[in-house]
Amino acid sequence: MDTFLIHLLNSLLYASVLFLIAGGLSLIYGVMRIINLAHGNIYAVGAYATAWAVGRLLGGAPVVLLYAILPVGALAAAALGAVLEPTLLRPLYKRAEEYQLLITFGLLLILEDLIRVVWGPYPLSASSLFEAPGSLTIGETIYPTYNLVVIVVGGLAAAALWAFVYKTKFGVILRATSQNMRMASALGVNVNRVYVQAFTLGCFMAGLGGAIIVPQQGAVLGMGPDALILAFVVVVVGGLGSLEGALLGALMVGVVREVGISLFPEIELAVLYLMAAIVLLIRPAGLFGRA
Amino acid sequence: MGEVSRRDFLNSLGVTVGAAVAASAGSVLSPAKAEAQVRGTIPDKPYKIGHMTFFTGAAAVLGEPSYKGHILAAEEINAQGGLLGKRKIETFKADEAAGTDANVKEMRRMKLSEGIDLFTGVISSGNTPALGPVAEELKLLTIFVDGCTDFLFDKAVPNPHYIFRITNMQSADGVTAAVATAMTWPQVRKIAHIHPDYSYGRNAFDHFKISLDKLVPGTKVVYEGWPKLGTTDFTSHITNAIGAKPDLLVSSVWGGDYIAMYKQGLRYDLFKKMKFTSMIAFGVAPHAIGKDHPEGVIGGIHSNYYWNYPPAGKWPLNDIFVKKYYDRWKEYPNFQSEGAYTTLMLLKQSIEKANKLAGGWPDDEAIIAMLEGASISGPAGYLHIRPDIHQGYKDAVTGFSKNDPNYPFQILDPSRMVTIPIRNITAPPGWPKGEPTSTYTWIEKTWPKVTKA
Questions:
Q1: Does an H or E element contain B319, and which?
Q2: Where are the alpha helices (DSSP H) in B199-315?
Q3: Is CATH 1.10.3470 correct for A2-282?
Q4: Do A257 and B236 touch (CB under 8 A)?
C-alpha cells in the first residue's frame, strides 16, 4: 500500500509539471493554431530565472523570502511571451504554417544559446527550497515534502485554468476566437489582443512549470528540448489544442512512465512512445482531439 | 589453481590507496627542460587546430572545461613564440552538440576549407567511432581528448594511423569502480544499478558486473534503472532502487543529471540506506558538487584525474597546472581540462623531438612516429601512448568524497585515492578483439574468481 502510494505520488509529480508545459503548448495551439517549438526553452527560461534568483541573487536569504520569489520564473517567461508574439509571430500569421514552424524552431535554438550566454554552461540549482521542508514519512520510507508542493501547484493551476477558460468573460472570448477567429473579429473581438494574451498565458504556464520543478531538479542546458518532446507526447495523446486532453495526457504519461521504470526498466525510453503509438492507432486525432 | 583470496588478488593488481604526502616543497620549480635549440628554418604561419566539444546541451559541463584546458595550453605555447618558437596555435572551435552527422561534416569542412593541421577535442563515445574513420580517410592528424569507447580501437579503427586518444579507455571506469568497491565494501551482495541509457552506461554496467563477479562472488543485481541521458527527474528510479533493498547502488549518471540525482537521493535518505559507487560523479567541473553531497562514497572521475591528486607538493606538474588553470579561469580543472591540456603538451613534445632528429618543420608522418609509443609526464602522472592502437594509458584512479573547510565545494579525499596500474585492468597488446569489448573477454578469461577474503 505504501509502495503504491509512493508510485502514485511519483506519477502525479511528473504529470503536474508536464501538464503545465503541455497545457501551455496546447492553449497556444488551440487559440492561435501555432505549434510553438520554442515552448521547451520558454520552460527552461522559467527554470533558469528562478534558479538564478533563488540560488545566486538572493542565495542565503530567509527561506520564506525565497519561496516568495519562486514565481519569478513564470513572470519572466510570461514577459518573454508578451514580447515575442507581437514582434516575431504576428508578421507571419498570413503566411503558410511552415514559416511559423521555422521561426519557432529558430527561436528554440536562439534561446538555448542565450541561456548559455546569460547563465553559463554549468547547472544552476535552487535546492535550498527543496531541502527546507524536509521529508515526510510514508509507511517505512520517507518522501520529500517539496514534491507534494509541486503536485498541489500543478493541481491548482489546472483548476485555475479551467475556471479561467470556462467561467470568465475572457475565457468566452478566448474560446470564441479559438472556434472561429474571423467571426470573433467581426463581432468586435480585438484578435490581436487575444492572441498576445493567450500566448503570454501559455508561456506563463511553461515558466511556472520550470519555476516549481527547478528546486527539485536544477536547471541544465538541454532541458528545454527534452521537455518539448515529452510535451508533444502529451498533446499528441490528449489531442492538440485541448486542455482536458493535456491534463489526461500528462496523467497517462506520468503513470505509464512510473510503471515502465518499475516493471520494464530496460525499455524505459520506448514505453512512452509505444503508448503514444497505440493511442494514435485507435484515435488518430488524440483522445480529445477534433479530427 | 586452488584457493584465491581477494587480498592476494588485489595485491597482484597493484592497487594502492592514498600516498604519503611529501612535506611542502617550498617554491615549485617548473620541471621543463631548458629550451632546446630549434634546428633548421621554421615557417611562421599559424598552426591551425580544430577543437570540437560540447558548448551547448547537458554535456557542456564537460565541454567547457575541455575547451578551457586546451586554451590554457595554447596560450602557454604561444607565449613562448608558438610551436618550435615560431608557429602560433590558432584554434577553431566547433559545437559537438550539432549531432554525429553534422560533426563529421564539420570535421571535413575544417580540414578542407580552414586547412586545419590537427583535430582534437570530442567528448561523446557516440562521435569518435564516426569521426575516427573519416580522419583516417582525410589523412588528418587527430588526437581525441575523450570519446573513450573501447569500440573505437576494438572495431571502428582497429589499425589507426592518423588518430590518437588521450583519456583512459571506457572499460576502465567499470573495472576501477568494481575494484574500489571490492576493497572497501566486500560484504555487499545485493546490487542496484542506475545508468544512462546509451553506450557509456551500458559499458559501465557490463565491466562493473564482470569485475565484481570475479572479486566478490555471490552478488546479484536486484534493480536496474536506465534513465535517458539528460533526465533530471530520478524520483522513480530512486524509489524503485530503495524498494529493492540493495546493499550497494552503482551509477554512471553524470553532469547535471548526477547533480539532480544526488540532491533528490538525499531527500529519500538514499545514501543512508545503502553504499554508493559512482564511475564519474566527480568528473564534472569540481565546484558543481555541493557540500551537501554524501561523504565517504566512491565518487568516480572517469578513472582519469582529480585536481588535488597527485597531492600538493608531491608532483610539481600538477601543482603548476592547477595554479595556472585557477589563475586563468577562476575555477579548478576536471579530467577533461587535464586531457585537453596534456594533448597539446604531447603534440609540442612530439614536434620538438621530430625537429631535433630531422630539422625544419616535421611533416605529419614524423609527428606520428614520435606520438606512437610516446611517454609524457602530465599533471595526472605519466601518460603512455600505445603504439599499436594509439590509445593513451595512465594509471586509473578513483576516490572517496569528503568535505574540506578550505573549499566551498566537496572534494575527493587526497589521502584515500585508489590507484590501479592501468596495464592490470585493460586487455594487453595482442589480445584478440572481443565482445562486448576486448577488456571484457580478457577479464572474463584471465581473472581468477576469488574464493575467500
A1: helix B316-329
A2: 199-215, 235-243, 255-267, 270-273
A3: yes
A4: yes
